[in-house]
Structure formats: C-alpha cells, structure tokens
Amino acid sequence: MATIDLSATIGNETFHHPFVNAAGVCDETAPEMQSVLDSAAGGLTTKSATLAPRAGNPKPRYFDTDLGSINSMGLPNQGLAYYLDFIAHTETDKPIDLSVTGTKPADQVAALQQIQASNFTGLCELNLSCPNVVGKPQIGYDLDATRAILDQVCAFYEKPLGVKLPPYFDLQQYDAMAAILNQYPLTYINAINSVGNGLVIDPNTETVVIKPKGGFGGIGGQYIKPVALANVRAFRQRLRPEIKIIGTGGVTTGTDAFELILCGADIVELGTVVMQEGVSAFARITHELETLMQEKGYQTLADFRGHLKTQSN
C-alpha cells in the first residue's frame, strides 16, 4: 500500500494533516484549544479575538439542525492578550492560526498592530466576515471598506496574513473581490464563513430557535457545502497562485474534504461537525480522506488539488 502524504504548506507553516478547526469551534479557552492540539487535527485556529474580552450575544445562541446548525454567537472571546499568551506558552509542532476581528475597522487595525509588535510569527487571520454582531455589517461585503482596511494593515503588518471572507453568490462578486485581494501581499484567504442571517423555526412552539437578532443567525453544516465549493473554486481561478486557500463549509466526511481540495483548497477547516461530534471528527475524516485517496491512486494532496474537471460539449 502506497504511503499517503497529507501535508500542506501555507506561508511559513507546514500542516502535516490538512484539517483544523474553524474559528469559533473548540477554541475560546485554553483547555478547548489544547484539546484540538491533542487531537488528530493538523493545527489550531483560535477564537476570533477582539482587543478586549467579549461575552457575546445572549443565549440560546447556537442550535443543531438535521443538516447543520444556526448560530449567533456574537464573538464571545477572552481578548487578544489571552490568545497571544496561550500561543507563547504552548509547546507544539502544529501551526496555530491567530484569528482576530473587531466591531469596527479601527479595532481590527489596532489588534494587528499589537500582533506586529509581539513575538508571534505564525499565521494571522483577519476576520472580515462575522455576520452575528448586532448592528454591525460584514466588511467583506463592502469593497471600499475592504480596500481601506487592507491599505491600512498592509502599510505596517509584515507577518503572514490571511483574510476570512463571507460567502459570495455572484460571479461579479468573485471578480471584484479577487481584483482587490490580488493587490495585497496576502498569504491566504479562508472561504467561507457561515451563510449569514438564515432563520430556523421550531414548528412545535412556533418560535425561532435562537435568541439574538430575532432568531437570525449564521447557517453552517451540510446546507452550505455547495456554496463553499463554489467560493473556493471561483477564488482559486481568480487569485494569484501564491495566495493559498483554506476551504471551510459543510465538511462532514472525507469525501466532502476531497471535493474542497479538488476545487483548490490547500487545507480544510471543520466547524459544525466538530461542534456536534467533538474533536474525534478530525481522526475520522482524515482516515476517510486517506482511504479515498488510496482508492483513487493519489499519494499527495497536490496530486488532485485544483484539478476539478468540467463537462465538455
């Protein structure tokens, strides 16, 4: 049986396994983050950190459904200093991707200034796509705002930087956003965050299932896999080759992950499936991907990454 190499490189980090947690899943506290590092995950993504700690939205703010989940967490986190301290005092050979955000652009810039001044040298993910902060729009849907914040950040930030994007639904949106992203020295993008402002109803009680925003929240899980595949594929076709892609959305099996990599993802993040199954999902999905690669005769992720075929006339 041929040896399967599941490694992938993004910036200055090598992931020996292609699966990490999505920001917001098993990553708010030190014990949660350590549980990911101790699992079969290839690395860790921290909770999207704000400058100061946040309690997040009122509960209930997360609900599992038959095909996925809905949430309106509202960025609960321990504050940027907490995550920088965790990274500084954690010994691991797995990459740790530090996710940061803010409720306004000035806070995001200030957070990255702190990281630039710190000893942290790993990947940093600027979250431009949280749909669940009450009264705050997603920066990733505003082309001018995206350009403005990247102008500010890239004027001083010299470490590996990625951006987490919301889902796009039109070819013109892909064209416009890719044209902006290609102007900056980004290490990667993460596509996609949850599909914002969905609604789930309990027909028995005739009420919405989460409390914040009148029940509106981000949809994750199997519902959004086709959207994630489309976004990864579209951006891989449009971005400079050196900008890597983290694929996120709807992965519950090794086959799902295979499809995202086939569309061009370098590594894959797991969200809802880890919320529902726990960190054991990393080992299961890794095994399923290895088995599928063996059946197809692939030995590395590069053997099929981005090789999606189209139907000819």
From TrEMBL:
Substrate binds at residues 47, 71-75, 127, 193-194. Binds 1 FMN per subunit. It catalyses: (S)-dihydroorotate + A = orotate + AH2; (S)-dihydroorotate + fumarate = orotate + succinate. CDD domains: DHOD_1A_like. Its EC number is 1.3.-.-. Keywords: Cytoplasm, Flavoprotein, FMN, Oxidoreductase, Pyrimidine biosynthesis. The keyword Cytoplasm applies. Belongs to the dihydroorotate dehydrogenase family. Type 1 subfamily. This is Dihydroorotate dehydrogenase. The gene is pyrD.
